[in-house]
Write a structure and sequence with these properties.
- The protein is mostly helical.
- It has 3 helices and no strands.
- Helix 2 runs parallel beside helix 3.
- The protein is elongated, with a radius of gyration of 27 Å.
């Protein structure tokens, strides 16, 4: 038995050492009835946000320094909450920037079209006089 207060730190340590193997003792329980389903969903949502940010980075051809693939310790629960908030803010900012970029491109094209129309009209009117 492992007390819930110590479970996170113990499992994180065992996982970092590569000494953990999990056996499902409740195969008849559905995934949605499991105790930590909320945390798993939060992690999946953070992973989705990270993939979105990565897609935007690749699309803009931004070079990011690679971290060494050494043993990165599991973040503490408080750090996960902070990371989740940061990722939400970054995702929202990126979506807003993308929306604004599309609107600016549209406005630029419309203004360029109007400018060209005015030039053509000016030429046309000057030829008729």
């Amino acid at each position: 038995y492992l007390p819930p207060e110590a479970a996170y730190n113990c499992v994180a340590e065992l996982g970092e050492l590569g000494l953990a193997q999990f056996v499902d003792l409740n195969p008849d329980v559905s995934a949605f009835q499991r105790q930590f389903v909320g945390e798993v969903k939060r992690c999946e949502e953070m992973e989705r946000k990270l993939r979105y940010v990565e897609t935007e980075i690749v699309k803009e051809k931004i070079v990011i320094a690679e971290e060494s693939e050494g043993n990165i310790p599991a973040p503490a629960p408080r750090e996960i909450v902070e990371l989740e908030a940061s990722l939400t803010t970054i995702e929202n900012n990126l979506r807003e920037v993308n929306t604004n970029y599309v609107a600016l491109r549209k406005n630029h094209l419309e203004l360029s079209e109007l400018k060209n129309m005015l030039k053509k009209t000016e030429v046309f009117l000057s030829e008729n006089q």
